[in-house]
Design goal:
about 25% strand; mainly beta; 6-stranded antiparallel β-sheet; SH3 type barrels; about 230 residues; 4-stranded antiparallel β-sheet; Ribosomal protein L2, domain 3; about 10% helix
């Protein structure tokens, strides 16, 4: 008798394959009003974020942002100095935690060690250059943090032990170690029982069910790039 393959088990949406809600207890982003001076109350290691999280507070309230490089506790952060409108910043300024629309709290460049660069201004748009070398035009009143997100080099340290990788994956509810599909039995995966190590078609049909939705999902192109 066959059993449910991993794709079917994930498709059910049970807690086994979902990250715990507890890790998302810190909502990262700017409030609507960030004018004035803020103090870094605490630097926090969050399981849901790759970069350290900084809690900023003053008499009006508090909020959380991704920490920038060399940030320290009790440091004073002010609007116009560390937080600013991208329209007020000079060209080639490094920024992160960038808003996509004015007032949305910050959507781009929030992972560890990331930053974008103010590239140019055309009419009423400020163009930001991302690490992928793609440009995006944004409203000048979008806010951002000046500098580079903290945590650069977190992937440089080798894992060394398979057990450490197991616990890293466990936090994100990922299965580890991962078994190659072609090495599975035919009842466990559509690519299973690969005699000669030649998998079947890697292009999944558009309307394929979870048990068959494996390989290339709606690829834009196939074959060797010339």
């Amino acid at each position: 008798m066959g059993k449910r393959i991993i794709q079917q088990r994930r498709g059910r949406g049970t807690s086994t394959y979902r990250v715990s809600k507890k890790v998302f207890k810190y909502k990262v982003g700017f409030p609507k009003d960030v004018d004035g001076e803020w103090v870094v109350v605490k630097l926090i290691s969050s399981r849901a974020h790759s970069a350290p999280i900084a809690k900023l507070a003053n008499l009006e309230g508090s909020f959380y942002i991704p920490a920038f490089k060399n940030m320290y506790e009790r440091q004073k952060i002010s609007f116009g100095k560390e937080i600013a409108y991208i329209g007020d910043l000079p060209i080639k300024t490094k920024v992160y935690c960038i808003e996509s629309k004015p007032g949305d709290g910050g959507k781009f460049m929030k992972s560890a060690g990331n930053h974008a660069t103010i590239n140019k201004r055309i009419k009423d748009q400020v163009f930001v250059l991302f690490p992928s070398k793609k440009e995006k035009g944004l409203h000048p009143n979008c806010r951002a943090l000046i500098g580079i997100s903290a945590g650069h080099g977190r992937m440089d340290k080798p894992i060394i032990k398979a057990g450490k990788q197991f616990y890293i994956k466990k936090v994100k509810n990922k299965l580890w170690p991962r078994t190659s599909a072609i090495k599975m039995n035919v009842i466990d995966h559509p690519f299973g029982s690969g005699r000669g190590k030649n998998p079947k078609s890697k292009i999944a049909k558009r309307n394929a069910p979870p048990g068959k939705r494996v390989g290339l999902i709606r690829p834009k192109r196939t074959g060797k790039r010339k």
